[in-house]
Amino acid sequence: MSLPFKSQNTKAAATKRIIRDLRDLDKHPIPGLGVNCPDESNPFVLHCNVCIQVLINDGPYKGIMIHLILHIPEDYPLTGPAGNIAPGLEFDSSYHAHIHYDGSPGYTLSTALLQIVTFFAEPDLVVNPSPQSIENLHRIVKKFKCITCNHTYDKPNPIVVDYTAIVSVKPEENQETLTKEDEEQLKIERERIKFQRELIEKLTCGVTKQNVIEDNICLGYPLLIKRDNIGRLWSEIVLELISYDAYVAEIQKSGGDKLDFYEHWQFRSVTGRDYNHWLPIYINENHFEKGKLIIQNSISVIHYGTARGNARYDFTPSMALSVLTALMNKSAVQLFNGQMFESRHAIEAYCHFLRLLMHFIDIYPELDRKINDRIENFMRGLRYRNKNIIPDMGEFLIQIALSSKYKLDEIRKYVYEEYFARQIYWIERNSSIRNLLDIRPSDLLDIFNSVKVSNHLLVFNLEMAQTFIFSGVKKFLDAAYGYPPPVIVENFQQRLKAIKVIDRYSEFIQAIRLSDKIRSSDDTIDLIKRSIQISNEQGYTRIVSRDQERIDHQNKRTRYEYEYQRRSYH
């Protein structure tokens, strides 16, 4: 079902965000900028001084101080602030050629003002301003007085923070009196504070700037769900966290009034990515219970593509298994294909979806039985391994790792049989070999290259499951609100580099732990030929020997000639 939501007071949310931004500016002032609120009863109008001398040390307007009035909309940060030159300060188009348009829900007042500093530093005029024009602007700035806040050039209001005030650091007092034990304790405490600070930063909504530890919010990942030309739904994960409030505000801004699948709408994430849906993550049990209905509704929407008013679209536990394994597999693929910075976020997304799925398995034991039954059937025969039953081997490997009854080693033989059988279609399509039943050792490099990415992904999926899915993983993840230990992430990123350089069957066979059975090129050829037979039985291919090809061709020709003669006779 589609869930109605309580309409949010966007003005109240914007007020909280402004206060938070101003507090952050006070804690971490930016050289060259000053901001204050002349009327404390109206935080939506701020006065700002932008000093180009401090931050921008070149350009024609070096040394200029611009007094701005910043008007913040009531749906901030979904709509960015508008900055105007203060009334009476005659800074017009003769000094700057264009209007600045830029913004993102992730911008704070600090980042917005930094954009403005850069804007003023480059006037973008067809002809550079003359010395007389620059001198005149200096005179205007020095003569200006704001009638609202009494700002003048000699007595700036707000005060512009100088760079030297930021970088000056007081020496630590009494450092020489610390014992080794005290130093060790101090080091541990600093590491704890650093870890806590990094955790708060990770668990902060990019839009509202609220965090799970200090604020009562529900966090999740934006998703872009697309429908292909035959109606299937595919989810793409936007690797950043936003809150329920931020997601609802986007829906309200676009005219929606409930949590549903807005297939033809697109919202913009903090990093500029498009999304049209959102799924909360598991951070702890309290966070899960608070967002349980939203999580279940989101999963049913991802599963069916709609949530509108029909009981048949309501959540069932099996949806959690299919949707979350698909999202874990998707984040694994994003991790494999992404850059190093992206890969860290993809690992974190994988672990968040893993922890959520594990919790569903804990509260719905039938999911564990479903996984075990699927594995048991998989071992029974080919028809239970077919693509129609097991559409994606990456998702199935995740479920094997989650099984309470089976281990990969017990089923590895059947997994590899099906994996290599599915590869035959792509080998036949992508390689230059005329008939795969006639392959020789010299063909193996061509064959490997035709399915190299697939082989890399198999190694990657096996190691991903082995690294992040084990009996004590819940304890590790819960200790850090769903995040894996940094050292594990770093080690896996390095392993990913090694996987991507595997370029021959001998290395691949060793990586998937088949080297005890496949010891030579001839063994590899035998493996491929056995896989051709299974592929034919599964209906993926129809590969026959050259002799059989000639027989089939002759039979076809004979049938054609017979039919031609029969029609001619009649």
TrEMBL record:
Segments forming domain UBC core: 13-188
Signal peptide: none
Organism: Rotaria sordida
Name by which UniProt lists this protein: UBC core domain-containing protein
InterPro entries on file: UBC, UBQ-conjugating_enzyme/RWD
